[in-house]
Design brief:
There is one protein chain. The protein has one domain. The protein is 38% helix and 0% strand. It has helices spanning 26-36, 40-48, 50-56, 79-84, 86-93, 112-116. Helix 1 (26-36) runs antiparallel to helix 5 and helix 2 packs across helix 3.
């Protein structure tokens, strides 16, 4: 089980503006991870159109912004894998770690915990 309600919102680590992505707001990250770990239709949307999936959970990317690479995967991690890595994924998405949104294939099957625990 995750501990989303127990996680304080972490500050953003400073990184080069050319290489880092803005953190996702806490509420959006919580909703995204909850839906990826439980909602099959949402998971299908995330695989076919990650931008639309982000919009559905309340995060609108600017029209000219690229879809974050961490959200473009060939095989989405299982609901269980996402649930098991929830706290680490939350910290990455909200900017609580240096690797926030920099790790490619963040939601790829078999890589969520490894990616979430990556120092960069």
């Amino acid at each position: 089980m995750n501990s989303a309600n127990a996680i304080p919102v972490a500050g953003t680590e400073s990184a080069s503006s050319q290489t880092s992505k803005p953190p996702i707001p806490s509420g959006v990250a919580i909703t995204l991870l909850q839906r990826l770990s439980s909602d099959d239709p949402f998971r299908e949307l995330f695989m076919s159109n990650p931008r639309m999936a982000l919009c559905e959970v309340g995060y609108d990317l600017p029209p000219n912004a690229a879809t974050p690479m961490c959200m473009m995967v060939d095989e989405l991690a299982s609901k269980e894998e996402i649930s098991n890595a929830y706290d680490s994924l939350y910290l990455h998405l909200t900017g609580g770690s240096r690797a926030s949104m920099l790790v490619p294939h963040f939601f790829a099957a078999g890589h969520t915990i490894k990616a979430a625990n990556s120092p960069e």
